[in-house]
Batch of 3 targets.
Target 1
Amino acid sequence: MSDELLIPLPRLLQAMRLLVRGFGSREAEVEAVVQRLVEANLTGHDSHGIGMLPRYAASFLEGSLQPNAELGVLMDAGALLRLDGHAGFGQVIGEQAMALGIERARAHGSCILALGNAHHLGRIGAWAEVAAAAGMVSMHFVNVISRVIVAPHGGADARFGTNPFCAGVPLAGRAPVILDFATSVIAQGKTRVAHNKGETVAPGCLIDDQGLPTQDPRYSVVPPFGALLTFGGHKGWGLALMCELLGGALASGMTQRETDAGKKRVLNGMFSILVDPERLADRAAFEAEALAFLAWARASPAREADGPVQIAGDAERAWRARRSAEGVPVDATTWAEILAAAASLGVAPAAVNAAAGLPA
């Protein structure tokens, strides 16, 4: 088992700002990348947090990640937008894309947004949260151009990425409902975290390089590679397929068809639909009906193994409160990888340690 470090939130932010400056990013980009990555850790999704920085550094060094890139508009039909991320940091490109989509949804009542060629967009739930904060309902279908890691249902090897789906619903007087999940049983980053901690994953998540069931996360982290499985068998595979066709073929014009494990890039295409509920229905009636159903669902008696009932987004908010107060845990292996990434960017690991309040 890997030792675990507990880093206070202000210290972690300071250390990660120091590292991200190594990309040559302007200060606004540094802040956007650091805040979004640390936010993922705070919400309990370490798979999408600061542990991604070694991958980002490798992608940058091979020329696949372009710091300080800006969102490009390829087609503008008012409520219909086609956008190019120019391989820029997804934490920046995603923010810019959502701001434009929200502006158009306010003007037209809805907006369909097709974003391609963005470097890793991170936790997709963040973009549904941005939309919800602006009062918008949203849906997001995302594909992944990177090393293949998920097998189609019935297949014995990897053919595509974890292809997340996300939807968000804003509700007056309470936090939004945010549904955000990979179409694989678990996110690939969770296998990286488990591997670094020396832990196994649950049964039914992985197959090895021979197509046989395994609980060893190494088969999605180091060669020879196996594959993650889709959640719910053919149902998860069907949703992953839609993410590839909509987020990939339609939104970005790029689907996953390579098996090259050497490239470090992580590109996303995202097909998003934003709707202003006030333009579609009586908002008060919609929210009253939605809140009534949530209360009805929560009233279900708790099952011993899985209860009580939670609503999508509840777990993330609980994690955020706890980690904001107590600090962010980072396993020692992941921290060592982060320090190595800092060194590769010309940032002194000792300085990163010092910023985090850790010994050199």
Note: The chain has a mean pLDDT of 96.
Target 2
Amino acid sequence: MDEGIAVNVQRRNRAATYIGVGAAVFGILLFLLLVYTVGLDEIAANIAEFGLPAFFVIVILYFARMCMRASAWMLSVPEPYKLKYRDTIPAVLIGEAMSSMVPLGIMISGTAKAVAVRKRIPFVVGLSSVATENIFYTFVTSAFLILGAVTLSRVFVLDEAWAWTVNILIGGIIAVFGLVLLMVVRQWHFASWVCDRLYSRGYFTLILENGRRNARLFEELIYSFYRTYPKRFFPICLFECGYHLLGIAEVYFILSRISEMPSLLNSFLLESVSRTITIVFKFIPFMIGVDEAGSHFVANTVALGAGVGVTLAVIRKGRILCWALIGLLIMARRGLRFAHVFDADEHR
């Protein structure tokens, strides 16, 4: 690798490390503040009331959600290539482990999935299929978040500041939704255009010598999918919807164990806010602190109580940790290391 490129890569990695560590520290401090505000005894009592058998239930529900994403991914792979559940489910768990545990892991989780299946399909094909599935996920999730934000702001009385925040959020989601849709419909080759511009100006020439062609191939694979397989759109969207519906079911099950007022409306609102926080603050490992803060806000708004909201987030964080550890075990068994993912991400 050229010395200048190596220095730039090191600087970028160092900056990412500083940002990740800073985000993690912020999340931990916020988490401790919320625990102190609500009271450790109340949270511990709620967790004890929830019980270990019930925890196994939400662990299984979370696995079912991962199966929904894995199913959508399988349908996003173009012919003649094909993936099966034994390929996609372990890869999804590996990607979730990277995304949850590594600061800024959301930036490499897709690469981790493609690396995990590179013995079955070419890396570029795997990466483009992950991106295709993510676009469908973005469409369905955007609709889910807009519906949740509108319901929260119209059904419940919010402070003026929060009302403005929710309205800005709705506008932002609609803007992102429209931008992604426009990119797909117009087939903008934005990534390859940036790579070509950098290469022509002499930046990152060693990496971009092949990388710009891979970027073009990556985009073509994504756009050709939408032209070639329109009949797959609806099934993929159904699997993405199943992912969110299982999330609502999970919240409802937890509330039925720790609250006297479980309802589908409250479960829907708590899940939609949790999904929003996941998107915005995924760079914080395990979303520690911010997930509890979001659940705290919604639980207070719908009169469930702050303790219930924070407990809900803590319990759900436990099942994420459980499956993240399983994802790491799968990585170890397959001989995959974090370095493999980082190297693939660097040279993709």
Note: DSSP finds 14 helices and no strands in the chain.
Target 3
Amino acid sequence: MTLLVVDASVVIEYLIQGPYTDSVRDFFAHVAADDRLLIPEFGLLECTNVIWKQIRFNQMPVDNAQTLVGHLRRMPLQRVPLKSSLDTALTLAIRHTLSVYDSAYIAIAQRADAPLVSLDQSQRRAATAEGVLLAPVGDL
């Protein structure tokens, strides 16, 4: 069993075509049934907000957005409560000039002693500085 913390950037790249979609889809295709993919409790909401932005700013049809939310709901992501990681997330945000949202993924990875899977370069740099391993997603 592999334990990984998956950032919203990876989930969104899976759902909405981008430069790393092929690599991200390959990553998800190789996830084993007993692997645990962790995401903060707000992660699904964060991803849904990105889908809403596609409607609002990129004229994505509502039916397509609803289909994507359905796919999101079925992804093998385990939501992690944040209450015990809030202080760490704030500290990391201050230390690395990141949003608390991005820092929460790093805090969860630290707490779970699990690698972080992210396409966000600032978040990846901060995670590395904090000693969090990064799981590769193709050639970034």
Note: The longest helix spans residues 43-58.
